[in-house]
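PROTEIN DESIGN WORKSHEET
SECTION A - STRUCTURE
LENGTH: 310
TOKENS:
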């Protein structure tokens, strides 16, 4: 009895992977969406360039005029004063709220509740009219005799009222930003520092705040940018900041659109500079967590130029 021999087919030769043709996936919807966006952007740019209502000649005449530059300087001063004083006061209020003292924590919570509830413009008008409530401000013994008194308008003034209003408003938000950053720090590190006998103030200054800055900076940077733009509300106090001066100029010559464009351009430039500063400050405080931070845009540009030249 003979048995048939079953012959298996020879295995197919495996092609060289390097010789295989790689076909990329077609993303037709993505291309269509990109093309639509490009068309819309091109239409917008074309409108900016060709629409005579923009009056670019008027824009060029006023964008670097002495009046506008001085108004920008006033805006920067208000922003700087309110930022520094607001975050200093906000840091104190944040630690008051984190305190175990019920008096300090209640006062801090009440302050934050009140000043976050009242619109900024209402606070500014209130401080501007402080003399109607207190004609004089004095220094003396509480509930006792007054040794020194000064007229309210003389002591505070218009700029002072604006700085006070912006600072007190900013401090309420800064307190919550700082408190959130402090709560993000691992409590075990404070316990370890206390076990080593490190004083409480040094714990806060050398351990808590450096680590909390990583959580504080993104929100704080956003808040400062918002404050820069929020200084425009001081126009109700007739302070010569950027938006007020723009209003005065287009009230005289009737060129509303190009003057608003002047204000827009300056706000874009100033917020862009603040965003760049925020990026580098965040990068500095991230060194403890990220040993090799990604290259900055300037470093990437240098590497690209070096690569192309070689």
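SECTION B - SEQUENCE
RESIDUE ASSIGNMENT:
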């Amino acid at each position: 009895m003979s048995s048939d021999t079953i012959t298996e087919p020879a295995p197919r030769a495996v092609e060289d992977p390097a010789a295989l043709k790689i076909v990329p996936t077609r993303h037709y919807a993505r291309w269509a969406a990109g093309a639509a966006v490009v068309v819309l952007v091109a239409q917008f740019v074309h409108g900016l360039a060709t629409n005579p209502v923009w009056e670019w000649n008027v824009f060029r005449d006023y964008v670097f005029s002495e009046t506008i530059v001085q108004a920008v300087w006033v805006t920067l001063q208000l922003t700087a004063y309110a930022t520094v004083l607001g975050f200093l006061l906000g840091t104190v209020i944040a630690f008051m709220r984190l305190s175990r003292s019920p008096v300090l924590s209640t006062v801090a919570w009440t302050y934050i509740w009140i000043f976050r509830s009242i619109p900024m413009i209402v606070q500014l008008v209130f401080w501007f009219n402080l003399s109607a409530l207190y004609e004089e401000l004095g220094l003396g013994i509480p509930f006792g005799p007054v040794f020194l008194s000064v007229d309210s308008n003389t002591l505070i003034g218009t700029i002072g009222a604006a700085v006070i209003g912006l600072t007190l408003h900013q401090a309420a938000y800064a307190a919550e930003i700082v408190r959130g950053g402090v709560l993000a720090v691992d409590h075990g590190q404070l316990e370890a520092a206390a076990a080593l006998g490190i004083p409480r103030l040094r714990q806060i200054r050398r351990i808590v705040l450096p680590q909390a800055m990583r959580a504080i900076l993104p929100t704080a940077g956003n808040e400062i940018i918002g404050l820069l733009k929020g200084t425009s509300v001081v126009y109700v106090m007739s302070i010569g900041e950027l938006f007020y001066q723009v209003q005065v100029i287009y009230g005289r010559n009737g060129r509303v659109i190009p003057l608003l464009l002047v204000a827009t351009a300056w706000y874009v430039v100033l917020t862009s500079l603040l965003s760049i500063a925020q990026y580098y400050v965040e990068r500095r405080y991230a060194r403890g967590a990220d040993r090799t931070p990604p290259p900055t845009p300037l470093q990437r540009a240098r590497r690209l130029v070096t690569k192309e030249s070689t």
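SECTION C - NOTES
The first helix runs from residue 28 to 50.
The mean pLDDT is 83.
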